[in-house]
Amino acid sequence: MDLLVEAARAEFAHSTTYLNTANCGVLPRSAVAAVRELAEAAGAGVPAGFGDFDRVNRVRAAFARLVGVGADRVAIGSGVATHVGLVSASLPSGAEVLCPEGDFASVINPFVVRGDLKVRFAPLESLAEAVGPDTALVSLSAVQSADGRMADLAAVRAATTAHGARMLVDATQAAGWLPFDASPYDYTVTAGYKWLLGSRGASYLTVSEEAQHTLTPLHAGWVAAESMWDATYGPMPQLAHGARRFDESPTFLAYHAAEASLALLERIGIGAVHAHDTALAARYRAGLARLGHEPVPGGSAIVSVPGLADRQPALLAAGIATSARAGALRASFHLYATEADVDRLLDALA
After folding, report:
1. Residues spanned by CATH 3.40.640.10 within the chain?
2. 74: which strand partners?
3. Which helix (H) or strand (E) holds 258?
4. How far apart are CA 268 and CA 6, in angstroms?
5. DSSP 8-state code for residue 333
6. Mean pLDDT, 10 residues at a time, the chain of 350 residues
7. Architecture in CATH of 3-28+269-349
8. Which of 105, 125, 163, 174 is most buried by its number of CB atoms within 10 A?
């Protein structure tokens, strides 16, 4: 076991066998302390309770390092669907958007609800082959929420490049455990409350330098200005350079938590996190095989077993947190999980 991973376990105070990060991550103690400090300052009515924009920008830079891009390519927000909606609004009427069948709703619905786009679906495994000359955008998750299947992002990127299409990747179920490089893609979106160990209210949009001209900052407030303190009243003098022009006003409690959470991930290293999480998933897969169950194949940190969704309530009653998704029992393994946790789940299923 990686010593940094083992040491990091002291950062968590959960009281359950927690195998449910694909639903929501566990906040580290340091993140809880940061939230408490801000909330208490706000309750005391002192300036420290207003929230810290410098901290938000440190989070922006930390996330940028995590996904291999410059901080000028990262916008911050409060939810993935809002970022995807910005991309949806940029498309001309009649444009074709290609999505995997059964992908997460936030990656699909902002295109569907427009009503004037042609949204087409194809199996995840053959998505690259489905890209055609009329495709304007491919929108997909790097890792499927329902069952942990991983997209062949390189193949899809090659296909979109060949046909002159843009590509949007949702890294919500990838960034934090799977080494993920956002730089090849026009847009990526990531929620901060799962594998990134933050809370709801923090999300990240990356936009390539070339693609930044394609988006209009429709929800631009004063924080989207180049000099935001000079843009609090009246029309802003100048939009921010880079992706910060797509910022939403930050939910400070979430971003104060995110600084501590991302710092923890950086200390450990995503390579070590990946090795730990996938080793536990492999142990679980092997145990399932011994019990006669067939999980969805793959090497993901998310493991789904079709037909076992009805076991989730009893597991939760026994103190084992998992999810029921699309008729399957979904377990997901992260820093705070141990081999003993895997074995406890297998014993309960037996």
Report:
1. 43-267
2. 206
3. helix 252-268
4. 10
5. -
6. 82 95 98 97 96 97 98 98 98 98 98 98 98 98 98 98 98 98 98 98 97 95 95 95 96 98 97 97 98 97 97 97 97 97 97
7. Alpha-Beta Complex (3.90)
8. 174
Contact 97, 117 (CB under 8 A): yes
For residues 6 and 254, what is the distance between their CA atoms, to the nearest angstrom?
26
Tell me the C-alpha to C-alpha distance, in Å, between residue 278 and each of 14, 272, 285: 21, 10, 10
DSSP letter string, 187-240: EEEEESSSTT---TT-EEEEE-TGGGGG---TT--GGGBTTGGG-SSSS-SSBP
Residue 71 to residue 65: CA distance in whole angstroms: 8
Cβ contact 330:306 at 8 Å: no
Tokens of 244: 């910060």
Helix axis angle, 53-67 to 252-268, nearest 10°: 40
Question: The tokens of 34 are what?
Answer: 């940061």
Using only C-alpha atoms, the chain has a radius of gyration, in whole angstroms, of 21
pTM: predicted TM-score of the whole model, two decimal places: 0.96
Residue 123 tokens, joined: 């199996």
